[in-house]
Task: structure prediction
Amino acid sequence: MRNALGTAVVFVVLLLAWEALHLVVANSSLPSPGTTLVQLVALFGDPDFWKHASQTSQAFAVAVVLSTAGGIALGVLLGMNRVAGTVAEPILVNLYSLPKVTLYPVVLLIFGLGISARIAFGIMHGLIPLTLFTMNAILQMKPVYRRSAAVMGLTPWQTSLTVVLPAILPEVITGARLGVSLCLLGVLIGEMFASRNGLGYMVMHAMERGDMPTVLAVALLLAIVALLLNAVLLMLDRAWRH
Amino acid sequence: MTVVALAEVASVMPADDHHARLAGVTRVFGRPGSPNCVHALGPIDLDLRRGEFFSVVGPSGCGKSTLLDVLAGLAKPTEGTAEFEGRPIDGVPAGVGVVFQEDASFPWLTVADNVAFGLRRAGVDAAEVTRRVDYAVGFMGLKAFAGAYPAQLSGGMRQRVCIARTLVMQPRLILLDEPFGALDQQTRLLMGDELLRLWRETSATVLLITHALDEAAMLSDRVGVMSARPGVFIDVLETGWDVDRDSRIVSHPRFGDLTGHLWEKLRAESLKHMREN
Result:
């Protein structure tokens, strides 16, 4: 109850700040929350919007599934093999801190101008954090869990599925929370360049036309989607940690 | 499963039956000759009699836990042989249960599910799992907490969960690696009583690793005293307690003698360890 109240207060304060900012800066460059909402509702009635949204959703969904599966698999592999993990960690961290957008032309050359380039770019953003979180979760798992599994006569497969996986799940979910929002970021950035569809393209196109209400409406929608996804994963996390 | 029935079974077995045996066991970490090669243990000779309560005391770092690892099949001896029930130990032998020093309860499972864990993985049928888990949970005084998660329990209660988890597997040899090391003195004494009760009820052979001399003196039939690294047995002491002893024997004059004798043996070794570190 207090939590819900706190969230409501934060939202009201954010809305007021937005409104205030709108009044301070020139009217046209930052539409008010009201105008944005009206534009968002209008977008919902526009078939063009749904075409773009479905493009983004598709790319996002595929990128999330692939980077989650790949990130966990890679993380488990590197975590189980201490030497591989020690070698891979600095490489992954450095690779990750590279501004990936500079590599986007390369991605485009490899994957072409279609949806696969955006999926690949989404994975490039989402995969590494999840790999690192999973790997570290395994490296930091209490050794006594694995020893217990061994003395209870578990096979390596049983140990992975019924001990290691549940033990690292909280960290994996934390990694997934980061990975999912970064995947969305990657897909949207991908849509902003050399693209004719998707919400990223829609934002760029609206910007060129000076259609700020559309830019903000799409941004607002994406923020809500990202927050909801995060909330769902947080709930999973809470349900798991007792 | 009644106490009487188990006691009868125990009386049938010859008292000098060797349950587990270590002969000339050493454990060396690292490549021999390399600068970070550590001779951790041995050579160790140990005959565990079936049904006895054997404690191992020794200075920190003397290889006590390594000794337990060898018996549990978690570590291979560098030299020498390890046997359990007449067969060489290769991997974790069936019939051996281990309780570790650290809290090994799984935080994602309830107490009852923690206790049932090993049985379920072993494919024991559901009715049998329920029966054995109910028994073990009741025996360890966890009935009221069966549905609770480890995070809701104290350290002592969590260690009970781990003991119950070992108990349900009906081990014939129970290895305990300083299981009460993290608990306060009063709780440790009471847990010692529980351990004695469990030992009598299951008639299993128990090997307890501990750094607490009073614990060893109170609980054991025999106490092995280990030297500083590389650990070897420098003395094995018969305590001569009755089978139905409990923590109240700490007021027995012999308890003081035993503890004193253990310390006498151990003092020089502990000093050696302290000077070297």
Summary: DSSP finds eight helices and ten strands in chain B. Residues 106-170 of chain B form one domain. The radius of gyration of chain B is 19 Å. Confidence is low (pLDDT under 50) at residues 1-15 of chain B.
